[in-house]
Amino acid sequence: MPELPEVETVRAGLAPALTGARVLAIEIFDERSLKRHRSGPADFVQTLVGARIASVVRRGKFIWMPLEFDSKSATQQAGTPQLALVGHLGMSGQMLLRKRGDAPDKLTRVIINCETKRGKLIEFRFIDQRLFGGLQLDELVATPDARAGGFSPNAAKAKWWTNLIPASAAHIARDPLDEFFDADAVWLRFHKKHSGVKRVLLDQQLLSGIGNIYADEALWQAKLHYDQPADTIKRTTFDSLLASVRSILEKAVAEGGTSFDEQYKNVNGESGYFDVSLNAYGMTDQPCGRCGKAIRRDSWMNRGSHFCPNCQRLRKTA
DNA sequence: AACACATCCTGACTGC
DNA sequence: TGCAGTCAGGATGTGT
Q1: Which one from A293, A303, A313, A315 is the annotated catalytic residue?
Q2: What domains appear along chain A, each with residue ranges and CATH number?
Q3: Which of A131, A58, A61 is nearest to A93 (CA)?
């Protein structure tokens, strides 16, 4: 499912169409996609209809759209919290952009009808097979470090929402592609952890955006076993692991995300191409691209860990 | 506090 | 064809 590169591809696809767009109407086909919106589906609709989308922002795997309300500007000035439409793709979510009236997409859970700032009528469709993802309206709060909440292309000029983040995503760490990502600070916490390095890489509160695929790929590139305890890893190894993470994420972003299965789609419903360059994930029994030994898949945390048993060995220190 | 684990869900695909 | 079993890239709450 979607990890940082897929979510960024979606964000980048949504932004040109949705920035400045106004919400006209909402169709809910499955309320479970709104379960994280605590005030209920009716409140979701009532609040969101009429709002204008100010931007599309991402941190890690979270996407949010700061909202502006013409009719409520007076109360906003009086201290009402700023709101954002927050989305998470979970394991199987997609966010598609369609023209009003286009053929239906399977498993569509919510449609948000919008008018773009150029006056085009479009549908933002939230599709989700497993319902682990969802949409919600959430209050924006100040970031703890008073810097940008997340990535968006028009954040260069400070806007009212620049240094805000949805409360529900405030605990999510900056991702390795974030311009304010602090490698030294991450190292300080990383090297004290006794858990296996893969578990630590997947901890969104330490660094965000990495999921099972890119964890396996980065560990393969850095020649680390998934269960190598983080506190046995030297700073130089951590640095090269981080360099691997960054280069893999950047490459995947440049290629528009992975499409290992049919779940991941960009906003036009198209798959990415990164799967051709996977070295570990999904390569069970295939020869390792470095040494030729068969890639192994271990059952791990209710999912899979793919690694080369020759290149990626558990060591006393790494 | 830090860590490990169970749990939330459905649909597509595989193999008998 | 039908059906049971398997699998899936995440996040969170709970218990130790």
Answers
A1: A303
A2: 4-169 (3.20.190.10), 183-307 (1.10.8.50)
A3: A131
Q: Which nucleotide is nearest to A35 (CA to C1')?
A: B8
CA A118 to C1' C5, whole Å: 51
Q: Which of A3, A6, A8, A217 is catalytic?
A: A3
Q: Is A104 a catalytic residue?
A: no
Whole-model pTM: value is 0.95
A72: pLDDT strictly greater than 60: no
Residue A266 — pLDDT band, cuts 50, 70, 90?
confident
| Helices (H), ranges, A222-276 | 235-254
> For this structure, is A2 an active site residue?
yes
Task: State how far Cα A11 lies from the chain centre.
Answer: 9
Helix orientation angle between A212-221 and A235-254, rounded to the nearest 10 degrees: 130
Average pLDDT score, chain A:
93
Task: Give, as ranges, the nucleotides of chain C with any atom within 7 Å of a protein CB.
Answer: 7-12
Using left for φ > 0, alpha for ψ between -120 and 50, and beta otherwise, residue A46 falls in alpha
Q: How far apart are CA A299 and CA A301, in angstroms?
A: 7
For position A153, what pLDDT does the model report? 80
Q: Is A3 a catalytic residue?
A: yes
Q: What is the pLDDT of residues A117-166, one digit of tens each?
A: 999 999 999 999 999 999 999 999 999 999 999 999 876 789 999 999 99
